[in-house]
Write a structure and sequence with these properties.
This protein has about 280 residues and is of the alpha+beta class. The protein has seven helices and nine strands. This is YdbS-like PH domain-containing protein.
């Protein structure tokens, strides 16, 4: 039998060493222990007896506690959020924060009780053809104009420059049209606004969307764009095939959440607003 060193008598409150070589004897736990069964003093104080419960050592029993509690920070860590940093985002979804206000271009098409959720321009891949045309036309114009200048063909060179200017103006118009082409999401509908001189506004209520999917080609997965297809209860749909939208996975999640969990969106926005108010 091995024992630890005995505490000196000059150290009040020092813990006594006990013999641990003896196998403990299992003891039955009282059915309904009450507060009176516990001693209200330190079992390790100098000269005190061990706290007992029904005649047995207190160390023979587990103390029952209430259900575990978790803080909001712990829950936000499980959700992948950042505590008070803002609304939590599920891991892997890569959803950016919701836009606070619509641009002037989109705000004119929203009615007062409608809640804006976001707007997106088409992906820059939509301008790939126009960009290629502009580069090819510039290279060809430089080569042809140089050759004509070398052979003193001034009039033909002027014609080539005019054709090149027309091509560049066409490409510039396509870039401006791309800039004004917006996909808009609210809590009630989706819209596509396009056109510079002739403005086209197509919309579909979220309640009428019966099916939706997005398709990403190999280049779409490489550069981050996709095509959406919306189905509704009606036969004629103003919005059916919406091409070249950026971040299609994020956009898909936002539309689906707005369709099936609008209360969750409102709760997230309300919590974000509360965090901002606390920060100010």
């Amino acid at each position: 039998m091995s024992t630890g060193p005995e505490p000196s008598a000059e150290e009040p409150g020092a813990r006594r060493w006990e013999d641990r070589d003896t196998e403990p004897i299992p003891r039955a736990r009282p059915a309904n222990p009450g507060p009176a069964d516990y001693a209200d003093h330190d079992p390790y104080s100098d000269g005190a007896q061990s706290a007992t419960l029904g005649g047995y050592d207190r160390g023979d029993y587990y103390v029952e506690e209430g259900p575990p509690t978790f803080t909001e920070d712990e829950f936000s860590g499980l959700r992948g959020g950042g505590g008070d940093a803002g609304p939590s985002v599920p891991p892997g979804s890569r959803m950016a924060p919701l836009d606070e206000e619509a641009s002037r271009h989109a705000a004119r098409y929203l009615f007062p009780t409608e809640k804006f959720r976001g707007e997106w321009k088409r992906h820059w891949i939509q301008l790939a053809k126009e960009g290629g045309i502009a580069v090819a036309a510039t290279i060809a114009m430089g080569y042809i104009a140089g050759w004509l200048t070398k052979h003193n063909q001034t009039q033909l060179r002027t014609v080539v420059l005019v054709i090149w200017a027309v091509v560049i103006l066409y490409c510039a118009w396509r870039v401006a049209d791309w800039w004004y082409d917006r996909f808009i999401l609210t809590n009630k509908r989706v819209m596509v606004v396009s056109g510079i001189f002739t403005r086209n506004v197509a919309m579909m209520p979220l309640l009428r969307v019966t099916d939706m999917k997005y398709v990403q080609s190999l280049t779409g997965r490489m550069f981050g764009y996709g095509h959406f297809e919306l189905e509704s209860a009606g036969q004629d749909q103003a919005l059916r095939n919406i091409r070249n939208l950026p971040n299609p996975n994020e956009l898909y999640l936002r539309i689906v959440e707005e369709m099936y969990e609008p209360e969750a969106v409102e709760a997230r926005l309300g919590r974000a607003a509360g965090v901002e108010d606390d920060g100010t």
